[in-house]
Design brief:
137 residues, 5 helices, elongated
């Protein structure tokens, strides 16, 4: 857009569907050495409690995230409409596609991903992949 003379700024992470920051490398290195900090202990407690109760951890800011995302998508729709009116049909199409991708993106937290992964690992049995013919008698 800058090449065409349109002033623009960097997009925020939440506008690009990237809402999580990467893990701090110092904490990651400490965890690899076997140190379990208070945060990791608390995450483990929450995960164990969620598995015991069978309830997936709740997304604490779901309402705010949905409201922000819907506001962003409506603004993208307005911008796409203006681009289409001014003759930039390809850009309008791309922006519309991006808006639909943002709408389809899920709201899964790291705690929910850990829970889903742990539950799927617990439910996985390595013997169900073995066929009857593979067993030697």
């Amino acid at each position: 857009m800058r090449e065409q003379g349109v002033p623009c700024a960097a997009t925020r992470r939440q506008h690009r569907e990237v809402t999580r920051k990467g893990e701090n490398f110092v904490l990651r290195s400490m965890r690899k050495r076997g140190y379990a900090g208070n945060v990791h202990k608390e995450q483990a407690k929450v995960l164990i409690e969620a598995i015991k109760t069978g309830n997936r951890p709740a997304h604490i800011f779901l309402k705010e995230a949905v409201a922000t995302r819907s506001e962003i998508v409506s603004e993208y729709a307005k911008i796409a409409k203006e681009l289409y009116k001014s003759g930039h049909k390809t850009e309008a199409r791309l922006l519309t596609k991006f808006a639909t991708d943002v709408t389809k993106a899920g709201f899964t937290t790291q705690a929910q991903e850990r829970y889903d992964k742990t539950v799927s690992n617990l439910n996985y049995t390595p013997f169900k992949d073995i066929k009857h013919d593979d067993i030697q008698r």
